[in-house]
Every structure is written in structure tokens, then in C-alpha cells.
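Hypothesis: this fold can be encoded by more than one sequence.
Test: take the C-alpha cells below, design a sequence, compare later.
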């Protein structure tokens, strides 16, 4: 009996409810060297070439064998490097299995710190290579500039500029899902920091640059402009509500995001988005 319970417990741990439904894998090609793998969790960029393979983000540990199989349909070989755009588990969950296979995990210093406090000092979830403001990976005749943006979605976000492929992996700075971003204020995120990061990316790209969002479909500069305008509108509405209603509960009750015509997911409902915007904007721009 005890053994059955233990087996069930192990099964529960390796098969979280999120994977009860079959993952539908899809690959989109940006150039012959750069592909995007859509599965469950953060979108994965796959760079292939004469020197091998590297990826940006790795979804969940339980999906790592599927991810390897999908990569092998593009080019055989294990990733030499895995770049994490930030510490959230739907972007770093595969770090341990990829590191065990020999991949070198790269991330901002704060990603390592946050993963270390969650998983312990000896965990192979932790990135081996960390950086501060930026780092450039010269591999496969691509020069991938990994740029840190402070206090945006979290305090450890990195955006990857593929300078040859003319594409950018934006991590969760960009949700192309027809809704507002998740500003993780408990992990150093900020509405104004996020907007500042988006303005900078917008300045650096051209109309034909392909944008890889953390979640949702690929986009272009014009889509980023709409996303920025949406966040600016939401910010203005929440600031107006703060000026009138003051307290967090009264602002949420006033429903300032109503009328924007957005869809909200079950894990990030409108009230939570409003609360996160309130907490971020009050820290920065209003009374305590
Ligand atoms: Zn995230």
C-alpha cells in the first residue's frame, strides 16, 4: 500500500495537472538557422548551424524529452547553450535535464539568485554562466546580444537580439495574446520598467524584424506598437482610478480596465492584473 501511495506521489510530481492534455508541438521557421518551438510554457527559440544548436528558454522538465525530439526534427544534436529569458518555471523548468545532458545554461545574475533560493545551491537548475547588463553569444555565425532590462516583467529579464536573423526573443516582456502583461511585482517587476524596456526594443528594431514573444504568436514592430499603446492605456486608467479611489480594494472594485475589450486567462484574471498595476504604479507614482 505504502509503495502504491509513493508511486502515485511520484506520478503526481512528474505529471502535473497542466500536462493532462496532450501538448501540441508546432515549429515556425524565421530563417534556415532560427526556428521557434511552440509547446506548453514559454516559446522556445532554436538556433541551428555548423557549430551546433542552442535554445532560448526550455519550458518544463517533464517536456524536455519531447523538446529534444522536436529540436532533432530541425537539426540533430543537444543544445550547447540554453539561454533563460527570466526565472519563471515555464521558461526554466527544463534547465536540469538539459544541464545533465551537457548544455551550458546562461542567464542574468538575478535569475541564478532566484532559482538558488527556490532550488538550493547545488541544483543543476541553476545557470552556470551569468551576466549583468549584457552578453553576446557568437555561435553558428550569429551574434546573439543578450540584453538585461531591469525591473520589467521581473528583475532578471533578458531580451535576445539575433542580429543576423533580424529577430528578437523578448521573453515575457511581450505577451502576444491579446491581453495585458504579467507584471510580477513580487519578483522585481514594474509597469514603468516594462514600458521602458519595450520603448528601447522598439527603437532598436526595424519593420521587418520578427518578434518572438514569451507567449503567443510571432509579431512585428507594428504589433509591438499596439501592445505598448494598450499598456499605456491601461496604466492611464489605473492611475486615474488611483487618483479617485485611493485604496487598492476600491480601485479594483471600480474596474478601471473594463471596456478595453481584453481576454483574461484563468491564472491572470482582470482583478489580478489591476492589483499588479496598482501595486507597481503606487510604488512609483503615488502615495503609500
Ligand atoms: Zn514569466
Amino acid at each position: 500500500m505504502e509503495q502504491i501511495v509513493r508511486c502515485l506521489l511520484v506520478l503526481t510530481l512528474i505529471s502535473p495537472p497542466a500536462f493532462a492534455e496532450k501538448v501540441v508541438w508546432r515549429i515556425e521557421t524565421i530563417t534556415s538557422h532560427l526556428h521557434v518551438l511552440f509547446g506548453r510554457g514559454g516559446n522556445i527559440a532554436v538556433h541551428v548551424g555548423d557549430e551546433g544548436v542552442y535554445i532560448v528558454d526550455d519550458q518544463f522538465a517533464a517536456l524536455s524529452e519531447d523538446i529534444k525530439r522536436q529540436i532533432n526534427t530541425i537539426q540533430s544534436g543537444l543544445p550547447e547553450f540554453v539561454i533563460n529569458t527570466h526565472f519563471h518555471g515555464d521558461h526554466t523548468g527544463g534547465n536540469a535535464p538539459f544541464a545533465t545532458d551537457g548544455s551550458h545554461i546562461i542567464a542574468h545574475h538575478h535569475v541564478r539568485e532566484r532559482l538558488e533560493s527556490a532550488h538550493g545551491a547545488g541544483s543543476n537548475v541553476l545557470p552556470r554562466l551569468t551576466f549583468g547588463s549584457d552578453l553576446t553569444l557568437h555561435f553558428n555565425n550569429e551574434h546573439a546580444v543578450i540584453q538585461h532590462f531591469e525591473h520589467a516583467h521581473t528583475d532578471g529579464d533578458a531580451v535576445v537580439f539575433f542580429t543576423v536573423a533580424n529577430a528578437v526573443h523578448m521573453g515575457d516582456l511581450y505577451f502576444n495574446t491579446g491581453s495585458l502583461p504579467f507584471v510580477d511585482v513580487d519578483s522585481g517587476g514594474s509597469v514603468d520598467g516594462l514600458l521602458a524596456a519595450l520603448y528601447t526594443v522598439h527603437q532598436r528594431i526595424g519593420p521587418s524584424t520578427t518578434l518572438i514573444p514569451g507567449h503567443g504568436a510571432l509579431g512585428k514592430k507594428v504589433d509591438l506598437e499596439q501592445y505598448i499603446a494598450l499598456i499605456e492605456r491601461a496604466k492611464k486608467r489605473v492611475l486615474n482610478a488611483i487618483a479617485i479611489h485611493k485604496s487598492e480594494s476600491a480601485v479594483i472594485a471600480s474596474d478601471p480596465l473594463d471596456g478595453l475589450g481584453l481576454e483574461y486567462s484563468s491564472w491572470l484574471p482582470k482583478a489580478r492584473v489591476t492589483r499588479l498595476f496598482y501595486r507597481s504604479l503606487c510604488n512609483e507614482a503615488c502615495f503609500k
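The domain at 21-235 is CATH 3.60.15.10 (Metallo-beta-lactamase; Chain A). Residues 221-245 form the longest helix (25 residues).
Hypothesis status: open.
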